[in-house]
């Protein structure tokens, strides 16, 4: 099935001026300086021109098909209707008396010279006895000049159809070559040029985006670690605040005790003096005990030495 194609519009311009303008541009404005919108418009223009060429080819194919149909109609109308004249009489008689009479009447209208034929008279009179007889009737003869006329007309139509088909084939080949050249130009300039550069740029941007995404995930992991550390630090700060409050409470208690001690400084001094005298007495007693211990150790060592001498003796 062929899809419905829109007819070419007068506004569809040829790509030759556009390609000439593009070829006239300097090399520095060739590919990267062109906007993607301009390339897209050029591609759409080429696609519209391709559709126009395809529509023309389809229209020419339809014209050829209609021409073939006209030739067949002409053949069926002016040639096939006279073919029963060339058939044997037995085959012509098998169709029935009425059909034979009708066909002979049509032939008599076209060829007046057949009105005097005995076969035409017998067919028009409806002679069933001769139709059923074993002896074949006399065969009719088609006029040579009429057959040549129809054959010449048919051959002329065939020649015209062949010439038109050849011209249309050449035109289709030229249009197909032009469309192929346009497709190659579009593929080389747009698809392999600007679009390829855009695809490379897009791939580079995607690679950069992936790198930035990885860096972002790394930064987010570091941020989560820092947030955990910040929460731990906040907990320590809270504990330090509680310890500070406890220290302030103890400081208050110590300040109260200090104030109380300062108020009782005389009593404390007396207690300190008594404690010092007690310490001195304890130190003197300790010295005395050490002296006693040393004297006892000396005595013990002398007695042991005396016991060893006695054992030796």
UniProtKB/TrEMBL annotation:
Keywords: Coiled coil. The keyword Coiled coil applies. Residues 303-313 have a biased composition (Basic residues). Residues 1-36, 288-313 are annotated as: Disordered. It comes from the Eukaryota. Residues 43-70 form a coiled coil. The keyword Coiled coil applies. This is Uncharacterized protein. It comes from Novymonas esmeraldas. The lineage of its organism: Eukaryota, Discoba, Euglenozoa, Kinetoplastea, Metakinetoplastina.
């Amino acid at each position: 099935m062929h899809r419905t194609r829109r007819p070419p519009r007068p506004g569809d311009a040829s790509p030759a001026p556009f390609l000439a303008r593009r070829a006239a541009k300097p090399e520095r404005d060739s590919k990267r300086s062109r906007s993607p919108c301009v390339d897209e418009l050029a591609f759409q223009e080429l696609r519209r021109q391709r559709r126009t060429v395809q529509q023309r080819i389809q229209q020419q194919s339809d014209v050829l098909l209609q021409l073939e149909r006209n030739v067949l109609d002409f053949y069926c109308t002016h040639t096939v209707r006279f073919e029963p004249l060339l058939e044997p009489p037995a085959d012509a008689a098998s169709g029935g008396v009425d059909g034979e009479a009708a066909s002979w009447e049509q032939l008599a209208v076209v060829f007046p010279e057949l009105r005097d034929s005995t076969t035409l008279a017998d067919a028009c009179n409806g002679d069933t006895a001769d139709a059923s007889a074993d002896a074949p009737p006399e065969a009719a003869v088609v006029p040579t000049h009429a057959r040549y006329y129809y054959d010449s007309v048919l051959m002329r139509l065939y020649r015209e159809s062949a010439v038109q088909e050849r011209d249309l084939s050449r035109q289709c080949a030229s249009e197909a070559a032009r469309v192929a050249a346009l497709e190659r130009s579009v593929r080389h300039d747009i698809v392999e040029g600007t679009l390829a550069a855009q695809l490379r740029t897009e791939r580079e941007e995607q690679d950069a985006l992936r790198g930035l995404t990885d860096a972002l995930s790394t930064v987010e992991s570091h941020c989560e670690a820092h947030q955990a550390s910040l929460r731990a630090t906040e907990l320590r700060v809270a504990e330090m605040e509680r310890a500070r409050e406890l220290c302030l409470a103890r400081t208050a208690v110590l300040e109260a005790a200090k104030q109380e001690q300062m108020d009782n400084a005389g009593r404390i001094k007396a207690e300190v003096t008594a404690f010092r005298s007690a310490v001195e007495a304890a130190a003197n007693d300790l010295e005395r005990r050490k002296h006693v211990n040393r004297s006892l150790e000396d005595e013990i060592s002398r007695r042991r030495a005396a016991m060893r001498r006695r054992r030796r003796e």
